[in-house]
Amino acid sequence: MSSVAGPTVVHTRAPGKINVFLAVGDLQDDGYHELATAYQAVSLYEDVRARKADDFTVRVTAGPGVDVSGVPTDESNLAVRAARLLATTTGYRGGVDLSIEKAVPVAGGMGGGSADAAATLLACDALWGTGLGRDDLLKLSAELGADVPFAFAGGTAVGTGRGDELSPALAKGQFQWVLALADFGLSTPTVYHELDEHRLRHSSDISPVRQPVVDTGVLQALRAGDAELLADVMHNDLQAPALHLEPGLGRVLELGEGNGALAGIVSGSGPTVAFLAPDLDGALELQIALSAARLTVVRATGPVHGARVITD
Ligand code: C5P
Predict the structure, then answer these.
(1) Cβ(146) to ligand 1 under 6 A?
(2) Pocket of ligand 1 contains residue 147 by CB under 6 Å
(3) Cα(273)–Cα(290) distance, rounded to whole angstroms?
(4) Is 230 in the pocket of ligand 1 (CB under 6 A)?
(5) Burial of 75 per CB tally in 10 Å (0-12, 13-18, 19+)
(6) Is 256 left (phi over 0), alpha (psi -120 to 50) or beta?
(7) Cα angle vertex 64, ends 171, 156, to 5°?
(8) All domains of the chain, ordered by start, with CATH?
(9) How far apart are CA 309 and CA 299, in angstroms?
(10) What is the rounded distance in angstroms from the CA atom of residue 45 to the CA atom of residue 153?
(11) What sign results for the dihedral spanned by CA atoms 85, 88, 92, 94?
């Protein structure tokens, strides 16, 4: 193959995420809420293989425990939208055939669709030779969704604004997670809406929402790599509305916390429940206990790197 023709296929990978802290502020005029969140990228990856084509197409296959039946494969697919956005931005005239292997639960609150979009931007930039590079791709990624820049960046970061204004956070060591996957999805806008409704109903007895900030204890725990400290300060404002919409998640949280988890938290807008384990042995024991209770469980560690090209 000549260098002018470029690669025939590019393989990229981007991680899912857990919001170890998520404070939601007021609804803004653009339909988004102001956020303060601490993201951790975890070792569940979306793999994207991009091949040159005349048109834009996508195929999706499932990793362990993942149900991809609800993933659209038309123009509304976020990876297709990412590829089209890059083509429009750079003036590229061709298309791409995308093949996505999903390990991040679908509509699970772990940013799987965002990871697809981040991995696709990186893959198409390399495949097409459009040469945008990481910094410009990161900027472009914010147009595709609030979580996409973090899927691109990876590691540990604080997100403000819609969640897309990132500042890297120091983190030490590895955290061990056990994830209980639900056999249903939750719509992110519905969960935010439920939170707004709750705040409206109780506006007389809850204080008005102020500028959301990440608790300094969270940053200290991440910096120290201390799972026990992190367990004490993990928080998600979307957990209560997710539990209100899906009360069965309360039992899942109790099961994990009764079987050795340091703490459990609904991941993002749910319904995945993320349990922080004290160490690898604790994570393995918890995985066995939750599997025995017939939950679909996967383990993951974090933090991990963001979107990158894989050399097969
Ligand atoms: O950006 P993304 O497409 O992931 O957001 C999905 C939906 O989640 C938005 O349309 C909005 O309803 C809600 N959202 C929000 N505030 C944020 C992020 C998401 O209200 N900061």
Answers:
(1) yes
(2) yes
(3) 12
(4) no
(5) exposed
(6) alpha
(7) 10
(8) 9-170 (3.30.230.10), 175-302 (3.30.70.890)
(9) 24
(10) 14
(11) positive
Mean of per-residue pLDDT scores for the chain? 95
pLDDT of 5: 73
Query: Where does 189-272 show beta strands of DSSP type E?
Result: 235-236, 263-266
Whole-prediction pTM value?
0.95
> Which residues are CB-contacts of 208 (< 8 A; sequence separation ≥ 6)?
none
Q: In angstroms, what is the span from residue 294 Cα to ligand 1's centroid?
A: 32
Catalytic residue among 17, 47, 67, 102: 17
Residues 6+ apart with CB under 8 A from 309: 10, 11, 12, 122, 123, 126
Token look-up 């999805």 returns: 185
What is the C-alpha separation between 13 and 207, in angstroms, rounded? 43
Least confident of 48-62, 92-106, 189-203, 255-269: 189-203
Pairing of strands 9-27, 235-236: parallel
Q: How confident is the model at residue 4 (pLDDT cuts 50, 70, 90)?
A: low
Average pLDDT over residues 127-142: 96
pLDDT tens-digit series, residues 34-44 = 999 999 999 99
In this prediction, residue 68 has a pLDDT band, given cuts at 50, 70 and 90, of very high
Residue nearest to atom 19 of ligand 1 (CA): 32
pLDDT at 3 (0 to 100): 44
